[in-house]
Amino acid sequence: MHIIESIAAQANDFAALRRDLHAHPELCFQELRTSDLVAQKLGEWGIPIHRGLGKTGVVGIVHGRDGGACGRAVGLRADMDALPIHEANTFAHASRHPGRMHACGHDGHTAMLLAAAQYLARHRHFDGTVYLIFQPAEEGGGGAREMIADGLFERFPMQAVFGMHNWPGLPVGHFAVSPGPVMASSNEFHITVEGKGGHAAMPHMTIDPVPIACQLVLALQTIISRNKKPVEAGVISVTMVHAGEASNVVPDRCELQGTVRTFTHELLDLIEARMREVAEHLCAAHGARCSFAFKRNYPPTINTPAEAAFARQVMTGIVGAQHVLEQEPTMGAEDFSFMLQAKPGAYCFIGNGEGAHREVDHGGGPCTLHNPSYDFNDTLIPLGATYWVRLAEQWLATPTV
């Protein structure tokens, strides 16, 4: 494994910084302390910064030996926000704010990019420009979309952008990257079955929305099993059902909510259309009415082939080909997808291990993402920072076609 020595020598310092971030988690668009700390560190290293994109976003600008004159530029992105989860860990760096926790490792992502930023600013072994994108509000707020709307790619023109996420279960010292879809789109639906309430002892005088909703839950799954191609990946999950207030009353309505995940826009179009048709017609068949709402949140995260291959090449030079795996697509979602809609790039995974790194007094649950017992593995910081540095240096050294 070829870790940059000067980064490894400061591993403890950046681990301490990461733990400070972990102890002070901030939710989407509220990352004031976090963005202040990022800006302070970048400023200490002589890196010009721009603040305010996406409300609390920070962009650092590192020009190479040529002062950026060649016009080549690449973006490296880390997310900064935490989750509304009450932490189960009680070790020293556990969250000091009840109900808020870095349960997805964004504290570690920020620390890795900061470690890379310091090295890039001190050495500048490249021509062109590296843009360091510290993004807010990945966890449902669409911070990437908001930074783009605020002019991210117009103010900081770059030819490609790259992202990275820690991945529990993937061994430490391993990366995973692949071309094409690697994370799904995230979408939500809200269906209200509107019937006619009444006395539960006289159901013939009502239009009971509950059995209609039960049929609808099952009918929606036929879209997955019978409407989409079997080789296409898609998920419809009904996750909330709300109806009634008393055991002897047939309610007027029953509400269903849930999520839809796909890897393509075409399949998403099909699923949304069929869900609406099935819901409206099934309700009509029972004399009920239907209200159907569908919200598209994050598009699928799709790596461009050339950039995914380039990232794999960089990883191979650091950890060896046997430690660079194919990235198994996941139905989880990621708003880096908005950046990949605008620019070529690749989103990769870095192994976070199984959880053995956690200190005494961690929670009793697994070390998995969005779990109250999770903690980022600090041993990844030098490896992740090395990847960012080598990726930027080698990408900027690659001639344009």
UniProtKB/TrEMBL annotation:
Domain Peptidase M20 dimerisation, first and last residues per copy: 188-283
Note describing how the cofactor binds: The Mn(2+) ion enhances activity.
Keywords, sorted A to Z: Hydrolase, Manganese, Metal-binding
Record carries keyword Cytoplasm: no
Protein name as catalogued: Hippurate hydrolase
InterPro entries listed in its UniProt record: Amidohydrolase (IPR017439), Bact_exopeptidase_dim_dom (IPR036264), Peptidase_M20 (IPR002933), Peptidase_M20_dimer (IPR011650)
Organism superkingdom: Bacteria
Cofactor(s) this protein cannot do without: Mn(2+)
UniProt-recorded Gene Ontology molecular function terms: metal ion binding; N-acetyldiaminopimelate deacetylase activity
Residues annotated as binding Mn(2+): C104, H106, E139, H165, H370
Signal sequence, start to end: none
GO terms for biological process, alphabetical: diaminopimelate biosynthetic process
Keyword flag ATP-binding: no
Pfam families on file: M20_dimer, Peptidase_M20
